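Backbone geometry tokens:
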Amino acid sequence: MSARGQVLAPVRVAGIADYDEAMRFTDLVFRPGQRGRRIVESQYPHLYRQEPGHARRLMILRDGEGGLGPIIGCIGVHPISLRSDEARISVGGIGIVGAHPERRGEGIMTRLLHAAITRMQRQRKAVSVLTGDRLRYGRFGWENGGCSNLFSLTPRSTGEVNANRSLRLLRLSNGARRSVWKRIADIADRQPYGVVRNRMEQHAVMLRKGKEGWYCHSGERFAYAVLSGPNRKSRPYVRVDEVGGESQLVQQILCQLMQRFHLSRLDGLSGPNPEEVEHFQSISESWSRITDGMVRVNDISLLCQQLEPLLRRRARNLALRGVVRFINPEGGDPGILRLGRGGRSYRIELDRQQLTRLLFGLVPVSEQASDTAGLSCACRSLLNPLLPIPLYLPLLNRV
């Protein structure tokens, strides 16, 4: 029941017949006062499409007991597969968590989030990611996590790069050769951390509204860069969203673009991939490591199954052995990590936020607060070389 005393229908999965209204609703909530139709859809074409499969990613709440009234709440749950070395993590990406502006304070967001969590657990999404207010979403189990590197490029820091004027930069577009798109996809697929991208959606991801891509090739050498401007506009460029290819060419692309468009600064964002770090670090004025967003562990048992190949390999290389059982005080099946035969067995009781900090935070295990039951000195010594795990959602794939 809402704060107004009205009985609300349950949150339900949207269908294609609901899609157009849902897009108008998201524009009302997230793009108020902006002119245009389906603005959110045009800015995130890899997520929102008028197709049955994409429509079912949305969950809606309609007004009235029978659910026959207008939409007053909407949330998106998008399937993502994240790569962390050999681990493949099933993820639910949360987007457009919105309540009608005139109905805020009635618990609509709470109902949407609980419904989305239940759906992700049924769909066997081991974790969930979103961006937003930690204090708001922390009440539902999300916590700062993941790993990104932020680089600051200036004319001075890039000044030693030879901006080869004979290097021809080409705009990335739908009309680019298939061989160009294949090279970009192959580069992304080689990265140890990131999204397992569907190649059918690659154009939509790389050519999103507010983004511009450039590429160049010299013989067998190839590189590309995708940049964006402020307020979801493509220019003037303020950020490098993604780069790839031969490092020297990447640096020449960025240097030439800074000179061509008279840029005094560019921020570059990358994951922990060593190749990406190499592209930026030598031409940056400064850099820092930041959390990538917010992470919620939905199913610790499933997550341990997905992480075990990676952690067993790390443990084997370091001659570490043992069994770790993660217990969630909220209930549910425990997560079990078998790190080789022999060794001690440990039982750790963690809430969801503690679990995110342990598995996907930025602070080493040895420096984390001792507020978890069972995280003894011996257990810390076992886990410290293995955790946290870099979790990275590329900027182009953000929901």
Remarks:
- The radius of gyration is 23 Å.
- The first helix runs from residue 16 to 30.
